[in-house]
Specification:
This protein is α/β, with parallel strands linked by helices. Helices cover 48% and strands 12% of the residues.
């Protein structure tokens, strides 16, 4: 029986989601409304840097919290709020509990068992999609006439979430003891993390996470998107004995069994994969870039991009602002912000953005240039070559007066891409050298990107 409930929301200093700077928390007996513990609006010194985009979101700065208590001291005071309680929040598992656990791990503090109810999941189950623009906390509070106070203030959001939960329960006459209470099981992901060492498998899973994240950005799953998920499951089911893939395939088997997939199931799948990816040992930039690549593929699958998709893509970009200056982040956010200047996405703008994204997803074909001579040019090689070993290609270029750059530099003249695409490319169809070349060029370099087949055909 649900009795003790804790409404919970956090704001964090940066996009790594492990440096909490504000906590809003309230704990009560749901039946009687009597408080178990006082409401708390707590500002915290996160002992970490602040991202500009996070500051713009919640307006909390380092100067405001530099003299506040640190998290370990605060935790001693609020741990009791989570004991024998059901935590309730909006997107609480992916965002707030995830941030809490990361912060606990950061300070080497024991993680308690936690159970939760997500108002986002609850709203998607009961509120018809045609009645709301989206399922954000702000939109739902407006729909249920709930005062949200100051948006992105942890305490105001916490209180708004409490009122929203009660409004949903009341409007749809829900017996709260029939609401599914989920266990927040972070420890299981540690087992997965030990196995997700295969870069190819890790890349496949992270891009798939991005793709289904892209699918859900318009709050619906189309038949084409369902077919894509089925095909992904079929493609990777043969690898289901590999621990990197097995957990995802297992969940997919259950989800597609009835021949359809719901937003709730997409959310469940996203949460499962994201929990794994949050703790894999890889570069955060590489992981986030792979996810962005997947998101872009997901929203362009049907050849059009809706206003809702565009706005949700912008929010994801804002939430991951630390990708600034990393291709394709800058080009994407520039295009999206230009289109959303008037908050409307026309048919022409949808087509334009779709074309821009497709060019970014396959930059080699769109950026390749013809080079007829390498004499006196600095050349860097990437990928596997039809001509022979990379050393053979290097010898040939040297024989033609070229100079080999083992690593890509700002002063490199030519980046030559081998014919055979590497399955280990960090970013979809292109590798880190292509990514770096594009970034260098955006800062004033002039590196020509050349495909092996084009180069040797021109020589012949």
């Amino acid at each position: 029986m649900i009795e003790k409930v804790t409404y919970f929301d956090v704001e964090y200093a940066n996009s790594q989601n492990m440096s909490i700077c504000q906590i809003g928390i309230s704990c009560e007996n749901f039946i009687t409304g009597d408080p178990y513990h006082p409401e708390r609006d707590i500002y915290i010194n996160p002992e970490d840097n602040f991202d500009i985009i996070c500051v713009k979101t919640h307006n909390i700065t380092y100067e405001q919290v530099k003299d506040k208590q640190t998290f370990p001291i605060v935790w001693k005071d609020i741990e009791k709020y989570f004991t024998n309680s059901i935590v309730i929040g909006h997107n609480v598992a992916t965002s707030d509990l995830n941030a809490l656990v990361k912060t606990l791990k950061r300070y080497n503090i024991d993680i308690p068992e936690m159970y939760y109810i997500c108002t986002l999941d609850l709203a998607r189950k009961y509120v018809p999609s045609y009645e709301v623009e989206n399922y954000s906390l702000t939109t739902l509070c407006t729909y249920f006439n709930v005062d949200i106070g100051c948006e992105h203030n942890a305490f105001d959001d916490c209180c708004a979430c409490a009122d929203l939960f009660k409004a949903i329960v009341d409007k749809y006459s829900i017996d709260i003891n029939t609401i599914e209470v989920k266990k927040f099981n972070y420890s299981q992901t540690n087992e997965f993390a030990r196995f997700i060492s295969n870069p190819e498998a890790r890349k496949a899973v992270s891009e798939f996470y991005g793709i289904i994240r892209g699918f859900s950005m318009d709050n619906q799953v189309t038949s084409d998107e369902f077919e894509y998920i089925k095909n992904w499951q079929a493609k990777f089911s043969e690898y289901s004995k590999q621990p990197e893939i097995s957990a995802v395939v297992s969940v997919l088997n259950k989800i597609i069994y009835d021949g359809k997939i719901t937003l709730d199931e997409i959310t469940e799948l996203q949460h499962l994969i994201k929990s794994y990816l949050d703790i894999v040992s890889t570069s955060p930039i590489t992981l986030a870039t792979q996810i962005l690549d997947g998101i872009l593929r997901g929203i362009t699958l049907d050849g059009k991009i809706s206003e809702t998709e565009c706005k949700n893509l912008r929010q994801w970009l804002y939430d991951n602002i630390y990708l600034s200056n990393h291709f394709p982040f800058n080009k994407t956010i520039k295009a999206v912000e230009k289109i959303l200047e008037d908050s409307v996405v026309t048919k022409e703008e949808s087509v334009y953005l779709n074309e821009i994204i497709n060019k970014m997803l396959d930059p080699i074909d769109h950026l390749k240039e013809q080079v007829n001579s390498v004499e006196g040019k600095h050349v860097c090689l990437s990928g596997d070559f039809e001509y022979g070993k990379k050393s053979d290609v290097a010898d040939y270029i040297i024989s033609k007066g070229g100079i080999i750059d083992p690593n890509l530099k700002k002063t490199t003249n030519i980046l030559m891409i081998g014919k055979y695409e590497s399955k280990l490319y960090s970013n979809g169809t292109y590798g880190s050298k292509v990514k770096k070349a594009i970034e260098f060029n955006e800062r004033g370099s002039n590196i020509k990107i050349v495909k092996e087949s084009d180069f040797f055909s021109s020589i012949k």
